[in-house]
Model the fold of this input.
Amino acid sequence: MSVPAPIHQAVRARAQGRCEYCHSPEWVGAARFTMDHLVPRSRGGTDTLENLALACRRCNERRYIFTTGRDRVTQQEVPLFHPVRERWAAHFAWTPDGQWIVGTTPAGRATVDRLDLNDERHDDGFIRISRALWVEGGWHPPAGDPVIPEVRR
Done:
């Protein structure tokens, strides 16, 4: 079952060519981004605009069917960031070098950890290497995204 074309186009337009979780630009990769069901189909989720987010493959695979994560500060299980209902800037900021996403709220921190947005669980750190190149190219971090004044990971 595929997402109806008008809904697919509306999700893509809303995301403005970026993963709605990690804000990676779609145009720098070789593969189109996917539709992520915020409430997974296996849990009754639908193909509506309100239930779909544009996601890069790495974020989509890492989110899987999870809708919650553990906040490392409070140790509480909290809902993950919801890219349709919430603003990215209300939960996340970039480090000054543009390579790390910092969760600034419980939902933001839980999402950073659950989706491993900075490749902290992987030795390669490919996403941070990519972000460094994007910074060099002048197209990262995205305009309007907050940058924290000091590094707080």
In short: The CA atoms of residues 37 and 52 lie 5 Å apart.
